[in-house]
Hints:
The complex is a heterodimer.
Chain A: E1 6-14, E2 19-27, H1 34-38, H2 42-53, E3 54-56, H3 79-119
Antiparallel strand pairs in A: 1-2, 2-3
Chain B: E1 14-18, E2 21-27, H1 30-34, H2 39-43, E3 53-54, E4 64-66, E5 69-71, E6 75-79, E7 82-88, H3 101-104, H4 107-124, E8 128-134, E9 137-143, H5 145-153, H6 155-161, E10 168-169, H7 170-183, H8 196-200
Parallel strand pairs in B: 5-10, 7-8
Antiparallel strand pairs in B: 1-2, 2-9, 3-6, 4-5, 6-7, 8-9
Amino acid sequence: MVPNLIQIQIASALSEDGVGDIRWVLLDPSDASPEQEASLPAQDAAVLSAAAQAAVSSTPGSAPASAEPAREPLSTSDAHDGHQAAWTYEVLRALVLVAALTAAWWTAVSLLDQRGASSSGPQVGNRTTP
Amino acid sequence: MSTDTTAPPVNWHDQTRLLGVQVHAFFFDPVEVDARASFVERYLPVFTRARPRRLGEESDRVQYVAGDLSAQPDAVLEHGNGLICLTYRHTDRLLIERDRWANMLRADLMLQAIAGAMAVAGARQQPAVALLRIGNALFQFAPSPPVLECLATNIAAACRYWNAPKAVNATQLATFCEPKLRSLPGIALSTSPSSWAGVAAGNWT
């Protein structure tokens, strides 16, 4: 479901009778609380917000006749996409953390095994006499 | 939304493209223009016969809010089928030379005027045009779709950057977005409007 997008029309031409050559952009009134967004790294949050926030018309001079944002073909994503992306980001971050811990544990075990094997070998300075 | 193509255009003296914005300039003698009687004649000397109607009193500065963007433009005027969002600066230091005006125009003032027009257009749900009047010149800004997209998609990030509790204002958004616009590929180059559609659709290269 598309949230209540705000249509913004910016005129590019000015005449004695009015304005024309209108371009438009859709604004998403961000309903996410600052506390929720603060849990994300700043760069990722900016990307997510950008993806969910605006769509710009690509045809100068053709503003939509009615403000029906749910029917706008250029509205490429909505707030739901942002939440889904945030959830995916959290899962990926957990996976990377688990992989890093596993690698560290495996490295530590390998080093301990090598040290144990070398300590059971001949000691330096203990020469055996025939 | 229909556009009346038969309406006589205003007589801009010059134009250029700055940071993805088509800028039209009108130059005037400030001594002569500032002595005129009506507000429109003084602040919008580019009009010969049009007399847009100002919303509110001259001393009023209404705040317009669209989503998380707010602005308090110096004047908003009804003009035919749309609105004029006017920002003006009175200081004599902002007199510009006509032969090098494009280099003297400050990008932050330009983006601030556009962001203000965006807030007004969103709050009033009418098309708005961004104008900036300084000491001896009047400018009209026509932002390309990438510029509008950059401003619109960075409102939330600007709110966090400025720690704005409710809404970021036009000045803050302009300051935040200027370096981002300068870093956009191709935005500083002079391009024809026919190429804007591809850029707006994401074809940046």
